[in-house]
Structures are given as structure tokens and as C-alpha cells.
Amino acid sequence: MKTIIIFFLFMSFLTIHVIAQSSDEGEIRRLEKHWTKLLDEGDTTALLKIWSKEYVVNNPNGRIVTPKDIVSLMKSGHVFPAVKRIIEKITFNQNIAIVMGEELQQPANMIPDENEWISRRFTNVWIKTDKDWQLASRQSSVVIKDGH
Fold first, then answer.
1. CATH number among 3.10.20.30, 2.60.40.1120, 3.10.450.50, 1.10.10.10, domain 2-142
2. pTM here?
């Protein structure tokens, strides 16, 4: 009887953990699309709410930038090219979500054909606070194709 009770307690805990993780994964996927849309729209006010105060980016140009740098660039008129993000893996570790995958960035000449877009690899790190998830750091690198 004791074994059956322990088994059911374990299964209940496991079910609760899986449901919570599924809910968090859905929220992270939603936030990935949302913050990309905000970047496309140039909504710095909303972006500053999603980014943590310590948000830091290692960008494809090899520069480490902060929200202050990004907002300054956007307010000077810079428009980021469109990006399509393909999430390949989301890993959770306590209150941290690590999102990895491929990005396709529209080139500066604004070619609409995604087959011509620049391929990059990305990692985004989200931290869950008492209130919500915030983007804490990001890294993106251009994929160098053989022979180029």
C-alpha cells in the first residue's frame, strides 16, 4: 500500500511539473514572437519592459550591446531588418529558459525572398521573475557557409 501511495505522489508531482513546463514553453514561444514584433515596430518602451535591466547582447557584428545602446540606435532612426526566428530547442533550468535555433535576417537590400536571407544561429536566455519572464541575454552569429 505504501508503495502505491508513493507511486501516485510521484506521478502527481511529475504531472504538475510537466504541465507547468508546457505552460512556460508556450509563454516563451509567445514572448519570442512578441519581442521580435516590438523590435520590428520600433517600440522601445515595450521592449524595455520585456528586457531585464541587465539585458546584454552579443550581436552578429561581434559587439556587446545593452538596452541603452539599442534604444539610442533605434531613436537615431535605425530600423532593424526583418527576422524570422526558428526555435529548435527550449531548455528550462529552474527559473531560466534557454532558447536556441536559427534566424533568417532580411539583408540590407530588403530582398523579400527568404531563400536569400542571411542565416544566423541564436541563443536567447529568459529569466522568470516574480511577475513574468524577461529576456536577460542574447547571442547571434552569422552562419559561414563553406566556400564563402
1. 3.10.450.50
2. 0.80
